[in-house]
Specification:
- The chain is mainly alpha-helical.
- It is built from five helices and no strands.
- Helix 2 packs antiparallel against helix 3.
């Protein structure tokens, strides 16, 4: 049976991942610090700490893949319509070349990658809150789409 203290620490572990919105890489630093200091005292806290870190690392991996898809596509889409003379002679590039007629299938793929990026961030926020509620109730929660880096 888990104690109230263990439930609170586990819920705080999940909520500490939200520090990413205030402190860069806070979603890794604070869960690691809390988990490493309390993992030997409670199996429940240890299990929740692994879930938090696995989920955060998985989200990071998904974000890197989406950025590796979207950024080169947008760079290509913008510069494919820019004449080299405009770049060489410091002329202002007219944005009218970026019309809807110039959007290709690969640009749509980049737009989908950006939309998935934002959708994943919203889902991440919701799942962190949901996992914290589950942990405060003493229930074990496994994040969906989480790669088990720590077992």
């Amino acid at each position: 049976m888990t104690t109230t203290n263990e439930k609170n620490i586990a819920a705080f572990l999940h909520l500490s991942a939200l520090t990413q919105y205030v402190i860069p890489f806070g979603n890794y630093i604070f869960p690691i610090v809390i988990w490493s200091s309390k993992k030997n005292e409670s199996e429940f806290v240890d299990q929740n700490g692994k879930q938090v870190l696995n989920f955060q690392l998985s989200i990071f991996l998904y974000m890197v893949v989406l950025c590796l898809i979207a950024i080169p596509i947008f760079i290509y889409s913008i510069f494919k319509n820019v004449p080299m003379n405009d770049i060489n002679f410091n002329r202002n590039y007219v944005i009218e070349n970026l019309s809807a007629g110039n959007i290709t299938g690969i640009t749509i793929l980049g737009i989908i990658a950006v939309l998935l990026f934002f959708f994943l961030k919203v889902i991440e926020f919701i799942l962190i809150i949901y996992a914290a509620v589950k942990a405060s109730n003493g229930e074990a929660y496994k994040y969906p789409l989480s790669i088990p880096f720590f077992k």
